[in-house]
What does this fold into?
Amino acid sequence: MKNTAVLLITCPDRKGIVAAVAEFLYKHDANILHADQHQDAERGLFLMRVEWDLKGFALDPAEFPRRFSPLADRFEMRWRLERSDHPLRVALFVSKYDHCLMDLLYRHRTGELPCHVPLIVGNHPDAEKWGTFYNVPFHFIPTPPGAKDEFERKQLELLAAEKIDLVVMARYMQILSADFIRRYPHRIINVHHSFLPAFVGAKPYHRAFERGVKLIGATSHYATEDLDEGPIIEQDVVRISHRDGLEDLLEKGRDLEKVVLSRAVRWHIDHRILVYDRKTCIFD
Amino acid sequence: MKNTAVLLITCPDRKGIVAAVAEFLYKHDANILHADQHQDAERGLFLMRVEWDLKGFALDPAEFPRRFSPLADRFEMRWRLERSDHPLRVALFVSKYDHCLMDLLYRHRTGELPCHVPLIVGNHPDAEKWGTFYNVPFHFIPTPPGAKDEFERKQLELLAAEKIDLVVMARYMQILSADFIRRYPHRIINVHHSFLPAFVGAKPYHRAFERGVKLIGATSHYATEDLDEGPIIEQDVVRISHRDGLEDLLEKGRDLEKVVLSRAVRWHIDHRILVYDRKTCIFD
Amino acid sequence: MKNTAVLLITCPDRKGIVAAVAEFLYKHDANILHADQHQDAERGLFLMRVEWDLKGFALDPAEFPRRFSPLADRFEMRWRLERSDHPLRVALFVSKYDHCLMDLLYRHRTGELPCHVPLIVGNHPDAEKWGTFYNVPFHFIPTPPGAKDEFERKQLELLAAEKIDLVVMARYMQILSADFIRRYPHRIINVHHSFLPAFVGAKPYHRAFERGVKLIGATSHYATEDLDEGPIIEQDVVRISHRDGLEDLLEKGRDLEKVVLSRAVRWHIDHRILVYDRKTCIFD
Amino acid sequence: MKNTAVLLITCPDRKGIVAAVAEFLYKHDANILHADQHQDAERGLFLMRVEWDLKGFALDPAEFPRRFSPLADRFEMRWRLERSDHPLRVALFVSKYDHCLMDLLYRHRTGELPCHVPLIVGNHPDAEKWGTFYNVPFHFIPTPPGAKDEFERKQLELLAAEKIDLVVMARYMQILSADFIRRYPHRIINVHHSFLPAFVGAKPYHRAFERGVKLIGATSHYATEDLDEGPIIEQDVVRISHRDGLEDLLEKGRDLEKVVLSRAVRWHIDHRILVYDRKTCIFD
It folds into this structure.
């Protein structure tokens, strides 16, 4: 297992940032494995991700904030340090359709998704078998109409108790309250079964079928208070034709959903995503 | 050059249609080269395209309508017969961006687009050089605001004089009047520089850039009175990332536009498209 | 569940085939749902697939062969009749990598793959858990070097006992003997983890990595005595870059393998594939 | 027009490289626009591309080598400095098929390819019209069998006279001699009409058609003495089916060839490509 640190930085763009950061890391004997940066010229914004080996790094990670602060302050950075030996704790939310859930759990088991998955939350009992199979506690929390305050409270307690870092809505078919979302800013990933911003809202496959489009898509994005308007993380499409009925669209769509959601989760837990405004910068 | 006939049929779905059509053609010694059909179960609709060699066909094409009518009436068919030796007459409309125009003219010259192109209509003078190069008459018809009645009248006169079958809006940046469109039902092909129905309307690349999508698209469709709402013929997308600026989107988009527009024209002049409701059936 | 018949025909191309077949079906009150055909001009070959509703069909399927034979003989047809109420019996072979196995079993359970799966054969014990989870008998048959005669005999006995129609090599990492393959002509589907014919043979991802290709692929095909040379059913690719290490290729490749293999199985059990020479015709 | 410098570096990977380079640039007031790097762990290799604005840069580019040398020597760098105000001089070679030529010339005119194109060399007279249209001198140099020494000498004289930096084989259907290639190491870009390493050699579309593949591809690569074995720059594919005849493959292939060749040229003249061993690293 790798033992690395990832530093993520956003700050106003100006000269000398890379030199300062690289010099700081070099001074403490960092062996840089990946470094990537992006300038958003329009916004005058600088974004950076740098990953280095903790083996041989001369600075105790616990000491990092204190030592890095002067530099960060000088450049007005918003920054955070992540460590591969502190993998994120991820909760999977699911309703009746379980294809994304089973896909994520399989990828987790094969090591593709290096994170902890301490719990599954479902509002249908069917998904429990996956919890059993993969040995992940499954919590059945029904979501009757009018009781959102109550069932969200239960969900939030679970998330808090398990110190969850990331909530993945693996085709969880409930709209989260604004309060819920505010507690996990850019830490809730949803998958929408259309190529956003086309077919915002309900029943996108039905509407795609009606409209006669020649490609259907799926989109993973961070959940925000504006439904289907959060920063897009990943999108993909597949070709359809007049021969495809609604059933075929649903089937082809499932494969898209699995792919775009699992990529989004992968990039999030690898700390490859920086959000600015309504956009994401994905460092590869 | 091939010498074939194409029969296109739409009718209520019921038993015996294929048998009747195939029997009719066989009786007149048709050597069928391609036959394809589609049932739209939802609408109870039957759609068919059949192409045969006119060499050895025992029926004079001029006689076809009279002979085929009884069968067509029996099944309440809407049908038409097209002949490869009567290639369509296509007018190309263009404004300032000439990438689609030059692409279509090149494909026409190489034989990819078996049709006649008797005229180019432009509201900018720049495209004239392409007319000169490819030896196609170029008509410069300015489109000042408020003068739509007048300049469309000139355009329509040209189209009538040249017996135009199909108008291709090769990035022609004017909205056609309802009257113009009604004269060429499902015979005007437009290209929209987004993955419809996303980014309907103006400046789609700018809005795609603002929204932070991860794929951009282009759509070719028949022009109808509802702008950007006509039956979709073809769509394609290309991946973009946070590194792509607006300029890059425009550049990548140009390649998409060329591809989706030229495919649509190709399929139309090959008589591969049947429109029903707002959808297209593309026989391949 | 649908109740349809599928007729698959290959014969020398000549006039009147469609008329004769359509007339035959119409005479017996068939409600045709799909019909598709293909002419291979080079080989003078006609290929056809027609599917109709058995509800209302006036001919007992058991009677079909006797009644259809005169017509079939007249056109020198090779043909077969398949029925959706006689779903194929499919055996899944697996070794250590279980991503294709789990994917196929999941699709089977959701109804995407309408077939019976009476057995899994594995030469590693790991896959047993999937058999247990999906309630499919798992047979562990080790494959020690030099004992191919013996373990293939056991496998073939199982296949015979369960009346298997189709063998799917879901990343089963043994080369089947010529004798085994001859018993299931065009009834064994394999997945090769490259874009054939590139990287025929062992360790394709390693060689793709070494060669510095910009796309990697996967191929599903019928197994024949010439390794990796059988008729190709489906292929797909995914983009890679210099940033992708060998591990990334393996990971991305797994998603490709799942997709191309499951599509091939789907088309085979839907009776959509006709093989001619080394090619496949996939009726959609 | 932009006025930037690009520094490209390859060296053994070790600590402190980024810090040293960034510090050097910062010291001279460089406003870095893009910086990207790659570590090839297997080969212990570090590769970097950094681009900065020359406006405000305190170091005369002519002085750069002398000042940068100590740092470069310390890290054993192979490096070069490129300037956007010294665009590359590109020669286009063509035979009979002119789709790549016309595509590159069009992109050049629209500004997509910021370079000089002082000459076209053709061994068929047909392409002259493009030279005339775009006002680029066309040199007709026939290539009779057995006379390679002689006609290559003429070609090389032209290239030398025009101080050509990059030769683009835009479907130029002659094999260059080893001597020719050695004079332009990694400065000759070729397009092969298959998805290499599939269908190395002649007539790839014919062989793809025979083999029954489901996707066809095209590959742009640097020409080396081993035919079709040079470092791959870009590849792309398009789906085909049993319905596509050889003509269709050729047609679809032309679109692929245009795309992969023009991308390769674009990246080369933007100084985005670093070659190591037989691979390319494409900085985006």
Remarks:
- The domain at 89-282 of chain D is CATH 3.40.50.170 (Rossmann fold).
- The radius of gyration of chain D is 21 Å.
